[in-house]
Amino acid sequence: MSSATAVAHPNLALVKYWGKADSQRNLPATPSLGISLEALTSRVEVDLVDGSDTVELDGRPIDARRYRLFLDMARRRCGIVCGFRIRARNDFPSASGLASSSSGFAALAAACVRAAGTQLDEAELSALARVGSVSAARAVFGGFVMLPAGAERAEPLALPAEWPELRVVVAVVTAAAKPVSSREAMEIVRLTSPAYAGWVAASPTLFNVAVEAVRARDLGRLGPVMRRSYHHMFATMLAANPPVRYWLPASLELLSAVERLRKRGVSAWETMDAGPQVKVLCSAGDVRQVVAALSEACPWAPAPIVSAVGLGVRVAG
Fold this sequence. Notes:
2 domains, Ribosomal Protein S5, domain 2, six-stranded mixed sheet, alpha+beta, 317 residues, 9 helices, Alpha-Beta Plaits
């Protein structure tokens, strides 16, 4: 039996995916635009084994039944019938709002395919990764990546070298796992939130503006669209029954700190995923000011992480 290891970086959505058009096929209801974070990494080792699937994440066993749909699809796609022994590790907090499922399933897809001796191009690998996590379809590619509504695979928009001065500053306010998974929260919102239909209708316009802003390397245009996207996403959660609340008091302190930076003329623009962490886009020349402002807002938190735009998934070794 053979083995393989792959690494991937989480793909941070700037225009958010939130909700499924088809839950069985794991297809997104809204278009999304994401950026790969070089400073954060998921590493996944896969061994082909005789017997049942086993999964270990950050040294802890995970119920492999949670991965069954993906692993069964991987077996069909690779033409194999054996089991997978999976050992995954993130160098950042898992399941905490840092898109760990995107990098985790992108790396898992690449490792499974390589261990099976199968050849898939990036588009095919993106479609396979999506079965595990919609956002993983984007994490297969590096740089800036698009995932249209209802799509099976993502599409690259811009390579990391095309916006080399852009940075993402990540402020981690807690390493704890989210109390409600993104998958569960999306279903609550889809089924109960009166704001959901408006979210789905408005997202394509935000997406189109953001795509043009990335093509123009225009952070001053991209930033306000990012803010509208994440605020609208959280509005759907707050209107759900029961409401889904991921923000912590520290999250609000950080958001206020970024607003104060903009009032001082610093082009710093924040976003949040389904979790309490805050990420700020800025130019390399403004990183020092952004880090100082975030550290002052939450002096007890770990030092903010500064990331350049990252590469796509790759097999290690």
